[in-house]
Request: fold
Amino acid sequence: MAADTSTLPDALGEVAPPKGRHGAAAWASWVLRRLGLAVLTLWLVSILVFVATTALGDPVRAILGKDYNSDKARVAQLTAQLNLDQSLVTRYFHWLGHLLTGDLGTSIASGGPVSQLITDNVVNTLVLVVISAVVMIPVAFGIAMISTNYRRRRPDTAIQTVLLMLAALPEFVIGILLVAIFSTTVFHWLPAVTIVSPGVHPWNAPKTMIMPVATLVLAVAPYVSRIVRATLLEVLDSDYVELARLKGIPERVVMRKHALLNAIVPGIQVIALQLAWLAGGVVLVEKVFNYPGVGNQLVDSVNNHDVPMVQALSMIIAGVYVVVNLVADLLSILLTPRARTAISA
Amino acid sequence: MSTTADAVSVAAAAPRTPSTFQKALKQKRFVVGGVITVLVALFAVFGRFVAPHGQNEVVGTPYSSQGALGTDYLGQDVLSRLMYGGTEILVIALLATVLSTVVGTLIGVVAAYGGGWWDEVIMRLNDVMLAFPQILLSLVVLTAVGQPRAWMLVVLVGLSNAPRTARIARGVALGLVSRDFVHAAEALGEKRSRVIVAEVLPNMNAPLLAEAGLRLTFSIALVAALGFLGFSTDPSAANWGQMIQENRLGLSTQTWSVLAPVLIIGLFTIGTNLTADGIAQVTQRGGDD
Reply:
């Protein structure tokens, strides 16, 4: 299960092209406006994260559990560490200031600095997501093209039904089914969980990465594939493709040169949305395979009520989400001639 | 109440003689999905009354093959726990879907109908919520909470779905607010709230229904996922998501203890998704947008 494409933001609709200015200036102002919105979004997200982690419940009570009433010294110490004696606004700006200067605070569970604890995991997760994306894109486009080739005939219907069912499955369901099939029950080919000693990156044992990557690809590819197919069908029914066919250009070339290139822009939008979704989706997949990434760490930190860790990790995940969307908007504007001229004209 | 406005809105609605539901019944996806959904839902609600054992009753040694689906990590009957474990997921997901549909529709329609600054500010805030992967919102809030309660899960899942519904609702409403029958109602001096309730909302039913179906799929997945991560209202009670987690170690020896809850969650989401897709196909083809 991945982010649903029905809520796809429309990059072209969101940016009203500036009028009265020309060329580079218009471009610069458009990019600045878009950057400003990204920063604004991140700022609002930071308020949300801070309020949700510290103000909605009592973190000290959650951390100490049953010890809350007996261990007064620890209560006082934690209250001081989390600055809970100050007002919410003071605490927020205190935290934000440290965040902006790169100081992510001290983990409550382990006592070490957060930034040191998460560096390896951030790298591991990024590698996992990038590999999944690299595998997913050709797979999704390939399936879409096969499906389009048999458009509105039986193989197409079959492929679309399978994709729809795959899209409905939650990612942890896909993950566990893969484990059952490939490592524990049917075949015994792949390791069920990622076991690496601390400090060692999982890609040093490539076999352990196969199933996490496969799970993410299976969770995301159906959505991309469905959108690309819809775009391909639309293009193939258009007048200029008909003209190309009438000119005697073989269907293969029509598909490659005329249809596929036009399907790329909507493709980028979905891919970006799915990549951004991956930032959250890895949480469950990493948990299924015990992959040493930010998602796994986030769940453990939430279980330990380790407030500084949760704040840092969720800001990183939200940050990735915002940046990916920003890049996608830029790319789709750059790749759409119509939108390009709308901005610089 | 004005007869002119009513006449106009009736005229706009007149062409769809067969209802959305009747048209949907001709869709294979809708029928298959609907049947699966209803069967799983019935199992989740009424299964507990015919379960062979109690949900916390130890019937044998851990991970033995006793009973239809064997026993789990504590020696409890897997089939019985499966019959008990769906109720909470179903109820929370349903309530969350109702909440997200109501809140999301309200946000979307107010943004579309308000226009201008209203639209800009509301949708910008909406985008901030969208910048948050759904599971993350729940996890962040659960950090400061000791033991989640059912209403918390409903609110969390519902609110994390609402911005997505809001986007759809705004899109649909934008197509309606510039239509003649809305202008007619405004010209007759209807109050803004009344125009929204009486003119705009009734014409959004079908697309919103498809959206709600999709939200239900996501809600089920999210509630089950939270259970899988160990966040459920009662750690000892049976819960499909949690069953996967607690029996993980027995996957190779007693496969059904894990596979049964996995398969039923998968079946449920496939059912609701097919149903939603069936409705969406009908509204896209026969709808007026």
Notes: Confidence is low (pLDDT under 50) at residues 1-14 of chain B. Chain B has 13 helices and no strands. Chain B touches chain A through 49 residues (CB under 8 Å). Residues 116 and 122 of chain B are 10 Å apart (CA to CA).
